[in-house]
Design goal:
By secondary structure, this protein is an alpha+beta fold. It has one helix at 2-19, and strands spanning 47-52, 58-63, 69-74. The chain is built from one helix and three strands. The radius of gyration is 26 Å and the shape is elongated.
Length: 80
């Protein structure tokens, strides 16, 4: 009798967890990596993004091969 109760409890737990609705992510995030054309690739020369707005535009800066800083604004419609 006791083993039947344990078996029923295990089966109930299995079926209850299988029937429970699974949480679905609300957002489908996509990570895009890119380098700004003209950005240097030496030490300390890279691309840095520092902001994104509600339209998905990314603002940032990059350092070129002459260690000169430049700003950029990347549209989400731009090709990666």
């Amino acid at each position: 009798m006791k083993s039947h109760t344990i078996l029923i409890l295990i089966l109930f737990t299995f079926f209850a967890s299988a029937a429970w609705p699974q949480a679905q992510p609300q957002w489908k995030h996509k990570i895009i990596t890119y380098e700004v054309p003209g950005a240097g690739n030496g030490a300390g020369q890279d691309t840095q993004a520092f902001g994104i707005n509600s339209s998905g535009e990314v603002a940032g800066f990059y350092t070129d091969a002459n260690n000169v800083y430049h700003g950029f604004l990347r549209s989400p419609k731009a090709q990666p």
